[in-house]
Amino acid sequence: MGVKYIPEPFRIKMVETIKMLSREEREQKIAEAKYNLFNLKSVDVYIDLLTDSGTNAMSEDQWAGVMRGDEAYAGGSSYLKLLENAQDVFGYKYIQPVHQGRAAEKVLFGALLSKGKYSISNMHFDTTRAHVELAGARALDCVVPEALDPNKRVPFKGNMDVEKLEALIKKYGPENIGIVIMTITNNSAGGQPVSLQNMKDTSGICKKYGIKFAIDAARYAENAYFIKQREKGCENKSIKEIVKEVFSYADMFTMSAKKDTIVNMGGLIGVKEDKEIFQEIKNRTISFEGFVTYGGLSGRDLEALAIGLYEGLDEDFLRYRIGQIEYLAGRLDDAGITYQAPAGGHGIFVDARAMFPHIPYYEFPAQALAVELYKESGIRTCDIGSYMLGNDPDTGEQLKADFEFTRLAIPRRVYTQAHIDLMADALIAIKERASGVKGYRIEWEPPVLRHFQARLKPIE
Ligand code: F0G
């Protein structure tokens, strides 16, 4: 075992009790949940890896900030502090808080996209794709081909395929491309980073064709850490310098602040300098979210977010954070379990296609592995594969995803080395009995974002 666990750069001041149910109880609970892990009660889950979003542990400074939050409807001091900090970190003139990432998408995309338009991204996250489609437009993914091979260890597997991007722009016409979105890190490809060079190249193409370039910035700090580790010439830059440079290449960003800014709720929209689009954003925020100086958040949320913007950039924290994921990856390497390698920033994406070669995409192998992890050790994860991707909005047919990943998303500052070992042990136990695991079919599904609500049945 080559990878050492990096000791936590914090100690624990407050704890939350968790309990593991018996195997019999777990089997009953998951059947009652219709094999949809979103339907489980959190008290029935031992280790919750459903998401790293909003599940992070805030610091003593953030909790102290909660008590200082200014709850004024207009012009509150927590809002002003958030503006100042976000302008400092991202170097953008205009900042709009909203209640979470998908709210930022709803507000921004409605201003830029409509029927007949396209959004092109290295990869759209599921809510991002949903908001592109809800605005009447269509979403095209354009990730580098090496992202599609889980065993290919290259440093920036999240990158945009810039040649393909230019070809798509020419094919659909630059006037029909409402937006180009760079998701950093690339969540759906396994939390894989995007390089500074790729940001620069994508920005160049957008400028050439007069297309707006946005960042989906949920995991901007983890992405910057990878750039510092892996990109030539960046080893001596600070994380803050790298973040500023990354954002300098884009025109705007949407952000779910529930990830790298280590809060439980929040989102941001940033605009570098385009005053007109920002006016439109303010108008839409007031209709959908609330007045511009709170954007659907409490003053205490704004205060915690303002503080978290800096905590997320701390290099000791990021070294431990990414190190924890690399430790889990090391244990899977030893056991011959395939995952999207090298390990990404916010979790491990296990290749369920490799684990269950006998389960076809339309029987959802990654969902099957998620169910097994719960049955095995009370671990809750999610499918990032064909089950999540859903149906073609035009034909209604099941789409085949590029990957069938089961995502173990690791919340920030929450679990210890022993918990991580338990995750590895569970995966190893399932691998040993993999050929007996069966796929699933959908009994009922809603029209969009079905994985949150669908009801499933095992195929006998
Ligand atoms: N963009 C990315 C890249 C995301 O990962 C998410 C959320 C969003 C946008 C939407 O943000 O949840 O605050 O509305 N990702 C979570 C996840 C839910 O589990 O990966 P939100």
In N-to-C order, the SSE pattern is: HEHHEHEHEHEHEHHEEHHHEHHEEHEHEE
Number of helices: 16
Would you identify the CATH architecture of the largest domain?
3-Layer(aba) Sandwich
| Percentage of residues in strands | 5-15%
Q: List the ions, cofactors and other small molecules found in this model.
A: ligand F0G
CATH superfamily of the largest domain: Type I PLP-dependent aspartate aminotransferase-like (Major domain)
With strands numbered from the N-terminus, the spatial order across the biggest sheet is 2-8-7-6-5-3-4
Average pLDDT, to the nearest integer?
97
| Weakly predicted, low-confidence segments | none
Description:
By secondary structure, this protein is of the alpha/beta class. The protein folds into 2 domains: 23-52 and 314-458, Aspartate Aminotransferase, domain 1, CATH 3.90.1150; 60-311, Aspartate Aminotransferase, domain 2 (3-Layer(aba) Sandwich), CATH 3.40.640.10. The chain has 16 helices and 14 strands. The chain has helices at residues 23-32, 60-68, 77-90, 101-112, 126-134, 162-172, 196-209, 220-230, 239-248, 275-288, 299-311, 315-335, 352-355, 365-377, 386-389, 417-432, and strands at residues 47-48, 94-98, 118-121, 138-141, 177-183, 213-216, 252-256, 267-271, 347-351, 379-380, 382-384, 405-409, 440-444, 455-458. The strands form 4 sheets. It has a 7-stranded mixed sheet, sandwiched between helices. Strand 3 (118-121), helix 5 (126-134) and strand 4 (138-141) form a beta-alpha-beta unit. Helix 1 (23-32) packs antiparallel against helix 14 and helix 8 packs across helix 9 (239-248). The longest helix is centred in the last third of the chain and has 21 residues, at 315-335. The two termini are 39 Å apart. Ligand F0G binds next to helix 4 and helix 5.
